[in-house]
Design goal:
The chain is an all-alpha fold. It contains 20 helices and no strands.
């Protein structure tokens, strides 16, 4: 208990310190290097404004300018959406939860600052606040989740500290939705493994309202449902219970998709409903009018193998470290117990998979499970993700829990490499817990590679703060 409290304090201090370091580096780089694009401070009137107005005079214009200079790249969209709503088709690529938090804070907690630094600077300040506070809580939830999975507080502490200095750190301290998504996704996983399935579903649903890939978290619910229904049907011979488990799991998955689907419907209503079919946008006429996919393809050129061009080789090199770590971690987890992975966990004793089971009738279910899967017992070595040797039953418990994490990571890696702008992989994969669990193991078992991981993170933090904060391209 004391160790857990101590580690929590260390993570809290490290997370806050890492954000202060990022802020300091950003300020230093901005003070000595001229930005590539000086349009960050431009702020035309909202389209809904019928008359042209000039910005009111503020008390501290230099502070206001310094804050607004941080509104670069996608931050421009988030601040603009919070200020003016969804004005253009391409803005619908940015989901509404993060801009909503920015707007709420700017009109409540930070509203007294508007006369001092102006409305847009307050919006930007609100965005910074949401991102950095969300990051600190995401780091704390990652530790609590890691303790459940790794069964090793020290390995969990290392993983969480690595997260605090991950190579995409600049995005977690900027006006981007990465921090909010990480908090909701990792927090949802913690609640799921703690048995709070309804709360987990709520957090997963909110994550899908922060970033589109949040809907993939429904896969964790689906994996849990699949195993619980199997056990209910074949172990307990209870068809009604199996049906109830399937219905409950299905409804939870639907619930997770609702925010994202509702936002697509909102976009359709604003851009397509009531318009002349001859002049409406192509996606409006599709059988499934999915606005998000159209925007990604039309405005950013996202699509299967569309980024496989020789001129994009530098971007593939930029993404190669995080992709290599992710692939190595997947291979490592699979090799740990291949039978478990290729059977999706059905050939391992389910008494060891706590998050797949209900919180009741544990003893009877264990006995039944042993009878069903006794043929799958096999010799296993010490766990590879915790540096200490642990009993076989803990290793089996660990292995089945890790299966959905690795499947999720594998899908994300394939999407980043074959479909997306590959350089985005650095931040796209940076909220995936298995990467940090694997890196935590490498730090102690292969110190040379561990130094390389720290060097990689430090280099990307330095380069990221330099390039990104000055409107130069970086991932």
């Amino acid at each position: 208990m004391k160790s857990s409290i101590s580690n929590t304090r260390i993570i809290l201090q490290t997370a806050i310190a890492s954000r202060l370091i990022l802020l300091t580096l950003t300020l230093i780089w901005r003070s000595i290097i001229n930005p590539y694009d000086t349009s960050a401070s431009m702020n035309p009137n909202c389209l809904s404004t019928t008359t042209t107005t000039t910005a009111p005079t503020v008390v501290f214009p230099r502070i206001a300018a310094s804050v607004e200079n941080g509104v670069v790249w996608d931050s421009v969209y988030f601040v603009r959406i919070a200020q003016c709503g969804y004005e253009y088709e391409q803005t619908y690529a940015f989901l509404p939860l993060f801009p909503a938090f920015i707007l709420i804070l700017s009109r409540t907690v930070f509203q007294p600052l508007i006369p001092l630094i102006g409305d847009r600077a307050v919006l930007a300040l609100s965005g910074y606040f949401v991102s950095n506070v969300a990051f600190v809580f995401a780091a704390l939830f990652l530790y609590r989740l890691s303790v459940i999975v790794l069964k090793d507080p020290e390995a969990s502490l290392r993983a969480s500290i690595l997260f605090c200095f991950n190579p995409a750190s600049i995005f977690y301290s900027s006006i981007y939705s990465e921090s909010l998504y990480a908090l909701l996704s990792i927090g949802g996983l913690y609640f799921l493994l703690s048995g709070s399935n309804n709360l987990a579903s709520l957090w997963f649903a909110l994550s899908g309202c922060a970033r589109s890939n949040g809907v993939l978290n429904a896969g964790y619910i689906g994996f849990q449902t699949m195993h619980r229904a199997y056990d209910a049907l074949f172990l307990q011979k209870n068809l009604i219970l199996a049906f109830r488990v399937l219905i409950t799991g299905f409804l939870r998955c639907v619930f997770i998709f609702i925010p994202f689907v509702a936002f697509q419907a909102y976009g359709y209503y604003n851009l397509c409903a009531g318009r002349d079919p001859e002049t409406s946008r192509p996606w409006c006429k599709a059988k499934i009018p999915l606005l998000y996919n159209f925007i990604q393809s039309h405005y950013w050129g996202v699509g299967f193998l569309r980024y496989f061009q020789f001129k994009q080789l530098p971007n593939f090199l930029l993404a190669s470290p995080i992709l290599s770590m992710a692939v190595c971690s997947i291979i490592y987890y699979v090799k740990l117990q291949p039978t478990v992975f290729f059977s999706l966990g059905f050939q391992v004793d389910p008494k060891t998979a706590s998050f797949l089971e209900t919180q009741t009738s544990t003893v009877s279910r264990e006995d039944q499970a042993l009878r069903r899967r006794k043929h799958s017992k096999q010799e296993v070595g010490p766990t590879a993700l915790s540096t200490d040797s642990v009993p076989v039953e803990k290793l089996e418990r660990f292995s089945i829990i890790i299966v959905p994490f690795v499947l999720h990571l594998g899908f994300m890696v394939a999407t980043a490499f074959f479909v997306m702008h590959v350089q985005v992989a650095t931040r796209f994969l940076s909220s995936s817990p298995p990467i940090y669990w694997f890196a935590s193991y490498v730090l102690t078992s292969h110190k040379g590679w561990g130094y390389l991981i720290w060097g990689y993170s430090a280099a990307y933090i330095l380069i990221g703060t330099l390039l990104f904060s000055n409107f130069y391209p970086f991932t």
